[in-house]
Structures are given as structure tokens and as C-alpha cells.
From TrEMBL:
Matches recorded under SUPFAM superfamilies: HAD-like
Role summary: Removes the phosphate from trehalose 6-phosphate to produce free trehalose.
Organism per entry: Gryllotalpicola protaetiae
Entry cofactors: Mg(2+)
Family to which this protein belongs: Belongs to the trehalose phosphatase family.
Any Pfam family hit: Trehalose_PPase
Gene3D superfamilies referenced in this protein's UniProt entry, alphabetically: HAD superfamily/HAD-like (3.40.50.1000), Trehalose-6-phosphate phosphatase related protein, domain 2 (3.30.70.1020)
Name of the protein in its database record: Trehalose 6-phosphate phosphatase
Amino acid sequence: MSVGLDHLAAAPRLLVALDFDGTVAPLVDDPSTSRITADAAAAIARLRALPATWVAFVSGRPLDTLAALTASGPDALLVGSHGVEVSIRGELAAARLSDDERARMTRLEVELEQLVAAVPGAWLEYKPVGYGVPTRLVEQAELVAPLQQAARDAADAIGGFTTRLGKDIIEFSVRDVTKGDGVRMLRELLVAEEGGPVAVLYAGDDVTDEDAFAVLEPGDLGVKVGEGDTAAAERVADVDAFAGLLEALAAAREASAASH
Ligand SMILES: O=P(O)(O)OC[C@H]1O[C@H](O[C@H]2O[C@H](CO)[C@@H](O)[C@H](O)[C@H]2O)[C@H](O)[C@@H](O)[C@@H]1O
């Protein structure tokens, strides 16, 4: 076990904040079929059962989808839509779009629908504060870059969109909020409730997770799942390896709790 995990195992208060796709659930072609692995689910259940230990999901997924995919109960801490939507133990902070935001989304929707219709295998994800254009199933790989550029141009022409390039997806949001904002909010919430510092483990696999790694503080640990540039201090190879890390953390924290 790394020094980082030892430290987290003994931390007086611990927040385990997890990205979903590519971190606890393997990437698949159809996002509706994504499932958290049994090993990750078991480790998360063990962590949740420990004192002063909280598990949150921080995802680009819409909040309702994230809640369903993580089988979240009333105690869940969820951040969806890359930080825009929040649900704290059932208390929902949904995104209320202004008339201007709604109008810009409608304009972009029309343009994106036309663009994906012209590229076999492309389709449109309709999200509460924007759209995703998944390209995983695009039949002709050479059409992906032009599609993404045309989608980017359409969003730029309308204005006011945050663009994110993820794994086989380009996404557009009318809100400039990030997963980093979500992690910061979760930490502040727990610090206020518990009256003391909270160590954070954040894990993620994609570029959007770098916003969360960027808000980590001394005593926290960032874990990058898979390849790619990262500011995270640790890296594991894949979803299964990360489930192993969660299991090791759960075991070490159980031992730490038993010794106090
Ligand atoms: O922040 P995350 O929990 O990682 O969610 C980010 C996006 O995840 C989904 O797309 C990704 O997973 C899909 C299913 O495995 C995969 O087909 C796609 O290539 C990945 O980019 C989801 O569809 C998006 O809406 C999320 O924003």
C-alpha cells in the first residue's frame, strides 16, 4: 500500500469522491448499459459502513442517471452534470435554466441534431444543461474530427457554452461549473457538519477529472485511472485495479477503526 493510502486509512474524516464511467464502471459502447463492477461496489459498501467515512460520486452524467446507475439511497452524496447538479442526502439542487440559457440550448440542439444525422453511428445525448455527442460508434473514424469541429463551431457561434472533450465524446454545457467545484463543495459541507478537516480521495479517468485533481489539498490523494496526462499523484491501470485500491483502503481503514 502506498503512503497515500496509509494516510487516508488513518484520517479522522475521509471523503472518497469517485468519478463513474471509466473509474468504477468499465467504458462500454452504450452508456445506458454501464454498470459498476462487483468488486468496486463491495469496496464502496465497506467504506460506507465505516465511521467518519463518506463516499460520493462526481460525474458528467445527469443526476438522475447517476443516481440510478449507482443505486444510490437516501444518504447519497451526488454531483452530476460536471458539477452543475447536486444531490445531498436527497436534497436536490437542480439546474434551473434561465430563458436565455434555454434559448441557446434549443439553438444548439437543432444544429447538433443535423450534424449527428449526417454521420453514421453518431448520436446526441440530451442532458439537463447541455448535450453530448458520443463518437464511439461512428463507423468512419475520419468523420469524427470534422464532426467535433463542426459541433464546436456551432456552439461557439451561439456563444456561452463550455466545451469538454472526453473519451469518445464531445460535450457542451451552458454552465461553466466543474467537477472541482463539486469536490470543493462536498469538502466544505462535511467540514461544516463535522467541525474538522476532511481528507479527500478523488479518482477519475478522464480529462474532466483534472478539474477535481486541481482542487485537492495537502493530505488528499488523487488517483488517475488509466493512461493520459494528469495532476494526480497516483495512477492505476484500469477499473479493476482501482477496485483493488478501494478494497485495500477499506481493509486498512477497517483495521484503523478497530484499533481505536
Ligand atoms: O464523469 P463520468 O462519470 O466519467 O461521465 C462522463 C461521461 O460518461 C459517459 O460517457 C463515457 O462513458 C460511456 C459509457 O461507458 C462511453 O460510451 C463514452 O465513450 C464515455 O465518454 C456519458 O455518456 C456522458 O454523458 C458522461 O458525461
